[in-house]
Structure formats: C-alpha cells, structure tokens
Amino acid sequence: MIENQGWAAGKILLPGFFYRKRGDYMSYRIALASSDGRHIDRHFGHSDGFVIVEVEPGGKFVEQERRQAQAPCQHGFHEEGAMQAAVRALRDCRYVVAEAIGPGAQKALEQQDILPLEIEGTTVADAVQKIYVYEKNKQRASVRA
Question: What sequence ranges are listed for the domain Dinitrogenase iron-molybdenum cofactor biosynthesis (predicted)?
Fold first, then answer.
C-alpha cells in the first residue's frame, strides 16, 4: 500500500487516499452501509457497521471485512465524537455509500477526502459496479485532458 503524495506512476491521484498498485491500475476501497452484506439499507448515522470492499482491475471486487463502527446518530442527537470516530474508521476508503447521509456526516467525510454517496434501493454489487463505471469514465476523461 502506498500513500499518495500527489503523483504516482505518472498519474495524478487524490491527496490523502491510500492506493494499492496493481499493474497500471490502483485499486481502491468502498465502505457500504449494509445490515446483511448484500443490500444498501442503512443510513450513515444509524449504521453500526460497514461492508468494506476492494475494487480491483476490471471491476472485480472482493469483500475485505465487515467493519464495526459506533452509530453517530442516537435518536436525532448527533454525538460529534462518535461522528469523527466513524469517519476515522473509514479513512482508508475512497467512497462511503449509504441510503442517506446527513449534511454533517457529508462534511466530515469530505474533510477526510472521502466521497459520500447516497444510493438507496440497490445491492452492494450494483452500487460497486456503478462506482467502478464512474471511476473508469473519470480516468478516461483525465487522460484526454
């Protein structure tokens, strides 16, 4: 694993992300708020755990772990320390996917260079595939620029 310092293998990478070099492609991790490991069915603030997947070249993804986190929202009250702890627990991920992510959580994730995504009514596999297509199109666009 290498920590990005701005340039790697002649490509600009996002600061603060951890990348794993696989050929000419950097794998990345996604945290998904799921109670069963198959469906996106939790709000970020109510999720006490996340499925962590690593996306490899070609779009294949491998579940790395089920990571526990203290849910920062407790019946409408947001505990700032719990929010920061939940975000820190996911700092090795490029994306966090949940049914809903409140503005405070969005801001906290973005401050750690983690892109929060709200995707509801879908499976983990479908969400990962959508993100992979987005990443691939983003890479193509940066090569043309």
Answer: 36-131
Residue 31's nearest CA partner among 101, 111, 134 is: 101
**pLDDT top residue among 137 and 51:** 51
> Residue 72 is which amino acid?
P
Give the Cα separation of 19 and 5 in Å (integer). 11
* Alpha-carbon span 104 to 82, nearest angstrom: 12
Q: For residue 69, give the DSSP letter.
A: -
Selecting from 3.30.420.130, 3.40.50.300, 3.40.50.880, 3.10.300.10, what CATH number does the domain 27-140 have? 3.30.420.130
- Give the CA distances from residue 45 to residues 27, 36, 56, 142, in Å, rounded to whole numbers and listed in that order: 27, 17, 28, 34
Query: Is-contact 39 122, C-beta < 8 A?
Result: yes
Give the list of residues 6+ apart from residue 64 with CB closer than 8 angstroms, or none: 29, 52, 53, 54
